[in-house]
Amino acid sequence: MNRAERAEATRARIMEAAIEAVGELGFAGASIARIADGAGIAHGTFYNYFESRQVLLDQLLPMISLELLDHVRAKVAQAPDDPVARERARITGFFEFLRDTPHLFAMLHEGEFHARAGFQQHVEMQTASYERAMAYEAKRGNLRETDPEKLRVIGRMLMSARDYLSAHYCMRDGRVVAPPDHVVETYMEFVVAGLFK
């Protein structure tokens, strides 16, 4: 690797080590020393890549948020061309990603307090994605509601449902697991009855 590639690889290792540290110890326990050790670098080297610990922590959620969006988009793209199937793909894609990326759970539930800038960016990214999805379905005549202001509220309601359902059903014995089948079925029944024509 050339110098730029080595630098990028080191930066990626630092971010991965930070994600691991936050997932295991929470934001408060993710010290620079712990992160540097996890990345296999000297503690002082950390500052060649990040101005401060807070700057790094604020970049974690947006990075994982992009991965989440990519995962859900892929699930939606594989779904049948049907609004209900697309919404099922969104909710099941979210739960799958959460199961496969367990550190996201700690980041989502602590980020609002320990990485506010990153948390806000994550919320904005996810909100924009849901607004695009609702606009797509409304344009095709699939929704009961078409008012853009009300669709923004609906998007936030669906995001909130994901958050609270995962908090209640996806953490078992210290592990992040898929929710029981009836959780997705109940969510879908509720959303289909209230949202889709």
Q: What features would you describe in this structure?
A:
This protein is mainly alpha-helical. Helices cover 77% and strands 2% of the residues. A two-stranded antiparallel sheet has the order 1-2. Strand 1 and strand 2 form a beta hairpin. The protein is elongated and about 60 Å long.
What is the element layout, followed by pairings?
Layout: H1 3-29, H2 32-39, H3 53-78, H4 83-100, H5 103-114, H6 116-139, H7 148-169, E1 171-172, E2 175-176, H8 181-195
Which sheet architecture does the biggest sheet show?
2 strands, antiparallel
Q: How are the strands of the largest sheet arranged?
A: 1-2
SSE-based structural type: mainly alpha
Strand percentage lies at: under 5%
Count the strands? 2
> What is the molecular shape?
elongated
Distance between the termini: 55 Å
Number of H/I helices: 8
- CA-atom Rg in angstroms: 19 Å
What's the mean pLDDT score?
A: 93
Instruction: List the helices and strands in order.
Output: HHHHHHHEEH
Helix content: over 70%
Residue ranges: pLDDT <50 for 5 or more in a row? none
Pfam family, one: TetR_N
InterPro entries: Homeodomain-like_sf, HTH-type_TetR-like_transc_reg, HTH_TetR
Protein name: TetR/AcrR family transcriptional regulator
Keywords: DNA-binding, Transcription, Transcription regulation
